[in-house]
């Protein structure tokens, strides 16, 4: 026999909402400000005590995104209630708590679920402690050596080129994912052991139990809505801001024939909540309401196969012939609220033909207001530049500004310096050593640079500089990317400091020097003007590049948050992460994945760049000019020296 | 007496016409009723070139013979045209090298020691050592390079001197060494009527500050054509500047002209009329056409750039620039001019693979446009070949390829400027200054082998008169995107092009085709 309700007037009452993120909370704010202007509404501020005095507190359980671990689920669902209790302002009697719970409409029950206290044996305090203990235990066992080593190996395989620090970071994220998975599984099995469908259902049930325990002697209303969908009429048909769980109707077909997706419009739920808030229960005798569309919802018939209903399914999806959610108390409340004309929450008034259309139209209108998605919506383009003091632009050379790499530039110098008859021997020696270099590259970019630059042993530094002035410089200019040069000049024009960082030896970078304010390249050690093949300082590649940049920024007072970074390989990930505006240029596969995931701009600068063979042909001096200067002797000043 | 130029009326039995199509050649059947302008037959070259040079140096026009101008202790500067002339490059020995050797010999005999050689490249790219060696010859190169044989640097402000303003307030600023010399000997190759005379020193050794006074849209639009100096605003400006220079610098100009032997004897089919081709010529043509398609672009360009023209020299004249130039122009006209009566609705032109600005390089779309709307369109005296509002059809594939070392500013011009505007006046106001003063382009021009940053704009202005005059421009065989970026239309073949032209000139237009090579100028009455 349903109770009799007397729905009061909210005029003059002081209502507190504990949050304003959920769709229901926003709908409540809308209803309170338009239909109940005499009501004093406030939203809870952080702090030890709530601003009082208060008459009604409305607390909506947060919509959780699966999958979730039990301790985080409980912390978000259950813990706010005791916290709320302890933050109550000092006033004669505690306010009426209206708790909007997500406990019902999961579809796993059978029969008719009554509008009363949820029957289960779980103790919310015990379950909270259990969940915390489970997390500690999972964290501890995640540090065991054997699985930790396995994760480190996997991280190294995938991220080795980015440097050891990033490998460690990725291994740690793998460990956290393992912990998360383990806790999730434990939570699910614990929930099922207690007779709930999943962790979320358990959390919802525990939250209700906590509310009943804390407010048991005081005024308590628990309202259990089904899925909160877009608004029916107010503020406009199809309004759907705020967080809420909803699914497309196709979900019902997955669950089995005859299943429904029970969605109630947010404005109706808000009115139901306010009507319940205006009906103060007696202390110690809480009110319970179920609010769903129930049998009014037309079933979306899926495939008419005789497939058993799969449980646990998503919340809000159930087969009405298997389970029903009693709503007699809700109906009684509605009839009691009808005379005042302020509360409109009759689900029978929903026209199920026009409501989905209105939702679709509102969604389309919203999409039209958004900027049109460009052709490759996956990647962002680098944007225009603005003048900014202290801003800088840091460029990688190989693969970014130049289409060539260390090996190619080395081949140019060899072809330019050696007579033709020595070429086959040199190229054979390069081919022989190639596997060794590939292995070094796998170990790390810095290892590769060290190993490869050893080939420069025995070359005179002045000889190298001279040959760069002539043919090798031409070959290099052939392989310069015009789009990159344009970007560098744009930075210059905007007053930014332009910096080049590369593992290429310093003499080979000379033709591009005028474009940059500073150049950091590999410095080869020389003895009496002849290079020994060793490096005078660690080359600024891989992780060392990020460290170099940090030191440079400190020395020159640059703000890295406003710095632009351009690089093309995954080994530059640490460098790109250290600048405020990274940009991946023609990135390799791993860097592209990383860039898209983090919404970094991706640039393609390959247009109008000459090919490898054209550059190689340019590096070879024409037959008539072949006068290889002797090694070690400084070159005579040429007419091109316009210094 | 060699055969004069003539106009061929095409009918159903006429052999297809040979046309250049960028780096390839094709034969194209023109609709009956079309007219094809053929140049005069190639004039015979002078047998004893050395004697002719000696004669010219000893009997100049308007100035004393050269030996009398040379004194011991004087500063002598020899300036010569850069690699942009002639086209194609001349076989060794280049005529300029021969003249220079004679001059140096005379100078040595008279005891002149302070001698320098400068290339008059203005804002063109510097010449490479091998190109210098090709032009001046091995002996001169070894004796003078690199300290006393160098390129003009238009951005070396310490070595430029401002000589004053002309009557029209145009700055005259030239190379310091040239301006401060006691005698300036200029050696040129007067390939077309645009070159030579007052242009040589006032443009070849000038700076941007000087050049912008005549290399602009307004001047080019009022040069109708720039191959017809009396009707050219460009040449009037050159004369004004020359008056300022001539007053301060003594110039002894040696002007040479060449005949129409532009291609080696191995490619006779290019030098013969189409109806005179025998089996060998036909085979040669097919070999070139198909070989071109098979070869990779780099190899193809290398082969084309290695083609040298076995020019015969048709005249060597010396004197002051204004006095000697009419004699030179007479030789040029003798070799190139053909008279034709009446303009046409449609002009058909084949664009060759080499122009002044892509010797040993690549013809990018901007250069192709300059070759087409600049040079080919302006090969006329009196009136353009095409009537006002008519259509010009050019054969060129317009490949979107740029030489990154020679033409870096062209890439940015194509991507940034042309995507914003194709109007020469608009780009002159909005973008020219930025490109002209960009430090990176200036660095590339001074230390690399790049054309000056402002050069692509000059290419565009070269076609400003044509753009104003014509109703439509269609490129046959071109990439449509590239053509439309430049403001033109593209058609896959001549029939389609004529259909597209029907919008402008109707469905039975009169067609005139200018048969180049060799270079032909139409005297349109």
UniProtKB/TrEMBL annotation, chain A:
UniProt keyword Zinc, yes or no: no
Region (Disordered): 299-319, 620-643
Top-level taxon of the source organism: Bacteria
Compositionally biased residues, Pro residues: 627-637
Record InterPro entries: HAD-like_SerB, HAD-like_sf, HAD_sf, NAD(P)-bd_dom_sf
UniProtKB keywords: Hydrolase, Magnesium, Metal-binding
Molecular function in Gene Ontology: hydrolase activity; metal ion binding
UniProt record similarity statement: Belongs to the HAD-like hydrolase superfamily. SerB family.
Name of the protein this chain belongs to: HAD-IB family hydrolase
From TrEMBL, chain B:
Gene3D superfamilies: 3.40.50.11440, 3.90.226.30
Residue span, LarA-like N-terminal domain: 36-225
The name this protein goes by in its record: LarA-like N-terminal domain-containing protein
A molecular function GO annotation: lactate racemase activity
One family name in Pfam for this protein: Lar_N
């Amino acid at each position: 026999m349903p109770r009799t309700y007397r729905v009061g007037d909210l005029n003059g009452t002081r209502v507190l909402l504990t949050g304003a993120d959920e769709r229901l909370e926003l709908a409540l704010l809308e209803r309170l400000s338009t239909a109940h202007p005499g009501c004093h509404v406030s939203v809870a501020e952080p702090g030890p005590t709530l601003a009082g005095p208060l008459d009604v507190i409305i607390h909506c359980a947060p919509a959780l995104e699966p999958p979730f671990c039990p301790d985080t689920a409980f912390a978000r669902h259950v813990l706010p209630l005791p916290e709320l209790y302890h933050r109550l302002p000092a006033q004669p009697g505690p306010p009426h708590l209206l708790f909007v719970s997500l406990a019902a409409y999961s579809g796993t029950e059978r029969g008719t679920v009554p509008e009363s206290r949820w029957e289960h044996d779980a103790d919310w305090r015990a379950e909270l402690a259990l969940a915390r203990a489970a997390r500690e235990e999972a964290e501890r066992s995640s540090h065991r050596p054997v699985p930790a080593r396995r994760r480190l190996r996997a991280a190294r395989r995938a991220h080795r080129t980015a440097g050891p620090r990033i490998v460690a970071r990725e291994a740690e994220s793998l460990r956290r994912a393992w912990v998360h998975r383990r806790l999730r599984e434990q939570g699910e099995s614990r929930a099922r052991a207690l007779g709930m469908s999943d962790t979320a259902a358990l959390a919802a049930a525990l939250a209700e139990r906590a509310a009943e325990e804390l407010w048991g002697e005081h005024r308590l209303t628990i309202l259990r809505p089904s899925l909160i969908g877009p608004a029916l009429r107010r503020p406009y048909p199809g309004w759907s801001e705020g967080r809420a769980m909803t699914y497309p109707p196709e979900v019902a077909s997955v669950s089995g024939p005859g299943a429904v997706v029970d969605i109630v419009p947010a404005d109706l739920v808000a009115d139901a909540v306010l009507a319940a808030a205006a009906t103060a229960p007696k202390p110690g005798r809480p009110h319970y309401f179920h609010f769903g569309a129930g049998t009014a919802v037309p079933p979306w018939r899926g495939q008419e196969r005789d497939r058993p209903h799969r449980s646990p399914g998503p919340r809000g999806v159930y087969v009405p012939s298997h389970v029903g959610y009693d709503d007699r108390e809700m109906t009684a409340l509605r009839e009691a609220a009808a005379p005042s004309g302020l509360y409109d929450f009759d689900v029978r008034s929903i026209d199920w033909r026009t409501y989905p259309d209105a939702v679709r139209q509102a969604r389309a209108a919203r999409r039209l207001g958004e900027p049109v998605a460009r052709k490759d919506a996956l990647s962002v383009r680098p944007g225009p530049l603005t003048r900014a003091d202290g801003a800088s632009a840091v460029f990688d050379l190989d693969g970014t500004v130049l289409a060539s790499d260390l090996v190619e530039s080395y081949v140019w110098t060899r072809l330019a310096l050696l007579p033709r008859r020595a070429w086959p021997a040199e190229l054979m020696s390069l081919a022989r050593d190639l596997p060794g270099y590939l292995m070094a590259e796998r170990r790390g970019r810095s290892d590769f640079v060290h190993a490869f630059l050893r080939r420069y042993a025995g070359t005179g530094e002045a000889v190298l500089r001279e040959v760069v002035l002539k043919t090798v410089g031409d070959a290099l200019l052939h392989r310069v990317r015009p789009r990159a040069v344009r970007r560098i000049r744009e930075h210059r024009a905007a007053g930014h400091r332009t910096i080049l960082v590369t593992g290429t030896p310093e003499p080979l970078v000379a033709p591009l020097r005028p474009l940059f304010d500073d150049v950091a390249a590999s410095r080869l050690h020389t003895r009496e003007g002849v290079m020994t093949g060793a490096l005078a300082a660690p080359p600024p590649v891989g992780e060392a590049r990020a460290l170099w940049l940090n030191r440079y920024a400190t020395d020159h007072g640059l703000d890295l948050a406003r710095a632009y970074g351009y690089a093309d390989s995954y080994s530059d990930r640490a460098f790109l992460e250290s600048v405020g505006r990274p940009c991946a240029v023609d990135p390799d596969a791993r860097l592209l994945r990383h860039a898209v995931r983090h919404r970094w701009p991706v640039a393609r600068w390959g247009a109008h760049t000459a090919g490898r063979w054209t550059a190689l042909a340019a590096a070879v001096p024409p037959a008539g000019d072949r006068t290889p200067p002797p090694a070690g002797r400084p070159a005579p000043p040429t007419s091109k020296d316009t210094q | 007496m060699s055969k004069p130029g003539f106009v061929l009326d095409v009918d159903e039995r006429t052999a297809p016409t040979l046309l250049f199509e960028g780096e390839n050649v094709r034969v194209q059947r023109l609709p009956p009723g079309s007219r094809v302008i053929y140049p005069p037959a190639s004039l015979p070259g002078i047998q004893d070139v050395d004697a002719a040079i000696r004669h010219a140096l000893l009997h100049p026009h308007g100035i004393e013979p050269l030996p009398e101008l040379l004194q011991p202790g004087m500063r002598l500067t020899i300036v010569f045209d850069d690699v942009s002339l002639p086209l194609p490059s001349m076989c060794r020995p280049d005529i300029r090298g021969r003249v220079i050797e004679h001059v140096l010999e005379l100078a040595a005999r008279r005891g002149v020691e302070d001698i320098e050689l400068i290339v008059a490249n203005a804002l063109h790219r510097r010449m490479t050592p091998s190109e210098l060696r090709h032009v001046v010859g091995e002996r001169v190169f070894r004796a003078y390079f690199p300290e006393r044989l160098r390129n003009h640097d238009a951005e070396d402000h310490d070595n430029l001197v401002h000589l004053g303003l002309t009557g029209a307030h145009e700055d005259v600023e030239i190379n310091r060494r040239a301006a401060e010399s006691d005698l300036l000997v200029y050696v040129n190759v007067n390939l077309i009527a645009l070159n030579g005379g007052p242009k040589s020193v006032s443009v070849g050794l000038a700076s941007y500050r000087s050049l912008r006074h005549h290399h602009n849209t307004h001047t080019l639009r009022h040069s109708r054509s720039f191959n017809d100096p009396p009707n050219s605003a460009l040449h009037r400006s050159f004369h004004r500047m020359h008056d300022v220079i001539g007053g301060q610098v003594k110039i002894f100009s040696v002007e040479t002209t060449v005949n129409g032997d532009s291609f080696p004897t191995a490619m006779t089919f290019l030098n013969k009329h189409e109806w005179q081709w025998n089996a060998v010529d036909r085979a040669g043509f097919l070999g070139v056409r198909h070989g071109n398609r098979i070869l990779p672009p780099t190899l193809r360009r290398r082969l084309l750039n290695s083609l040298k023209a076995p020019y015969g020299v048709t005249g060597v004249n010396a004197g002051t620039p204004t006095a000697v130039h009419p004699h030179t122009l007479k030789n040029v006209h003798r070799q190139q001019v053909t008279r034709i009566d009446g303009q046409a609705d449609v002009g058909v032109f084949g664009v060759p693979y080499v122009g002044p600005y892509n010797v040993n390089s690549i013809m990018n779309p901007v250069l192709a446009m300059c070759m087409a709307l600049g040079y080919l369109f302006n090969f006329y005296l009196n009136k353009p070949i095409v009537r006002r509002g008519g259509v010009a059809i050019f054969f060129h594939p317009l490949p979107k390829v740029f030489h990154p070392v020679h033409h870096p500013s062209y890439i940015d011009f194509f991507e940034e400027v042309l995507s914003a505007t194709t109007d020469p006046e608009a780009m002159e106001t909005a973008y020219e200054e930025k490109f002209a003063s960009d430090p990176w382009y200036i660095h590339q021009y001074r230390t690399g082998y790049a054309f000056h940053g402002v050069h692509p704009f000059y290419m565009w202005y070269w076609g400003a008169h044509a753009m104003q005059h014509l109703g439509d421009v269609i490129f046959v065989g071109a990439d449509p995107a590239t053509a439309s970026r430049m403001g033109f239309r593209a058609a896959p073949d001549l029939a389609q092009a004529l259909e597209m032209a029907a919008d402008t000139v109707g469905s039975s237009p009169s067609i005139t085709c200018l048969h180049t090579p060799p270079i032909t100028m139409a005297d349109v009455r």
